[in-house]
Amino acid sequence: MEYSMFIKLLVWQSLAAMALCQSAGFDFFYFVQQWPGSYCDTSQGCCNPTSGQPPSDFGIHGLWPNYNSGSYPSNCDSSNPFDPSQIQDLLSQLQTEWPSLTCPSSDGTSFWTHEWNKHGTCSESVLTEHAYFAAALNLKSQAKTLASLTAAGITPNGSFYNLSDVLAAIKQGTGYDAYVQCNSDENGNSQLYQIYICVDTTGQNFIECPVAPNQNCPSSIEFPSF
C-alpha cells in the first residue's frame, strides 16, 4: 500500500513538474525599442500622439515572448483581453516611454491593446497585465540606450555611424549583445530603426540572445534626428 502511494506521489510530482515547465510557454523575451526619428522619416510619415510629441528618445515597441527555435507564440488567451483599468497608474509613463506614432493620432490605447493581446497574453503565466507593462518600462530604464549611444559619440543628428560601433555602445551600457534592425528613409538610406535585447522569462533581467532576430543593416547606418 505504501509502495503504491509512493508511486502515485512520484507520478503526481512528475506531472506537476511538466505543467510548470509548460506554463511559461516560451523561452525568453525580445525587448524591442524603436527610434521615433526613423519611424517618422519614411514615405508613410507619422503622427504625434494626442498627448503631444514624445521626447527625443527610444520608445518601447514591445516585450515579445519567443522560442529558442526562432518562432514565437501569439494571441495566446482571447479570454484575457487588454483592460485599461489595470494600468491606470502607469498611464503617464506609457504615454512618454511607449507612445504610438501611427496615424491618425491616438492616445496609445490601441497600440498597448495590440501588444498585450498578441504578445503579453503569451506571458500571462508569469506576468499579469500590469506586471507586463511595468516590466517593459523597467527594462527601458535599465537599458539607457540613448545615453549609452551618446556617451560613445553616437547622436541622432542625421550622421552615419558604423553599425559595429552602435552595437558596442549598447553592449557597454547593458553588458549584453544587442541587435539592430534598419528601415529606409525617403532617399533610400538605411537608418537605425529598432534595437532588440533579450530578457529572461521573468521579464526582469537582460541575457544573451538564444537566437538572433532578423537583421538587415549595412555596415554604416544613419541616426536621424527627431
Describe the structure.
- Helix 6 crosses helix 7.
- With 226 residues, the protein is α+β, with helices and mostly antiparallel strands.
- The longest helix has 23 residues.
- It is globular.
- Strands 1, 2, 4, 5 and 6 form a five-stranded antiparallel β-sheet that branches.
- It is built from seven helices and seven strands, in the order H-E-H-E-H-H-H-H-E-H-E-E-E-E.
List keywords for this structure.
226 residues; two-stranded antiparallel sheet; 7 helices
How would you briefly describe this protein structure?
The chain has 7 helices and 7 strands. The chain has 226 residues and is of the alpha+beta class.
Number of helices: 7
Distance between the termini: 73 Å
How does the major sheet shape up? 5 strands, antiparallel
The number of E-state strands comes to: 7
Mean pLDDT metric: 92
Shape: globular
Percentage beta strand: 15-25%
Coarse structural class:
alpha+beta
Low-confidence stretches: 6-22
Helix amount, in percent?
25-40%
Order of helices and strands: HEHEHHHHEHEEEE
Radius of gyration: 20 Å
